[in-house]
Amino acid sequence: xxxxxxxxxxxxxxxxxxxxxxxxxxxxxxxxxxxxxxxxxxxxxxxxxxxxxxxxxxxxxxxxxxxxxxxxxxxxxxxxxxxxxxxxxxxxxxxxxxxxxxxxxxxxxxxxxxxxxxxxxxxxxxxxxxxxxxxxxxxxxxxxxxxxxxxxxxxxxx
Length: 158
Fold this sequence. Notes:
The chain is α/β, with parallel strands linked by helices. 40% of the residues lie in helices and 10% in strands. The chain contains seven helices and five strands; from the N terminus they run ααβαβαβαβαβα.
């Protein structure tokens, strides 16, 4: 028990030393409890560059989605309800509420990567799983949904 206490104190001191030298150390306990804490956010200089369209991972950050949209490289499908979409959405996003997705699956493009988005990433994650089960390999989930999009300072359309 004493060893863990001493180790914890040493790690705390080490974190403070690195913090004073300008190196970013993200305290794990804070980041697990609150991923939005300032010390847990990735500095702008360290944000990921948009991967090649053919190499998109299953989950994509809002910054990368914005970059891919600016290139005209992807289609965005918003799976929220009509009232949520009307309150604010990503410019150019197509609305297909999650509840109607099985009936509208034929409207999902197959010739371009599709980014699925909702409020927090939960419903779009469900849509992602459903579409993958239907054989779509070009669908991707935007991590954090519109909440993360707005927290990143990206514009919405009303």
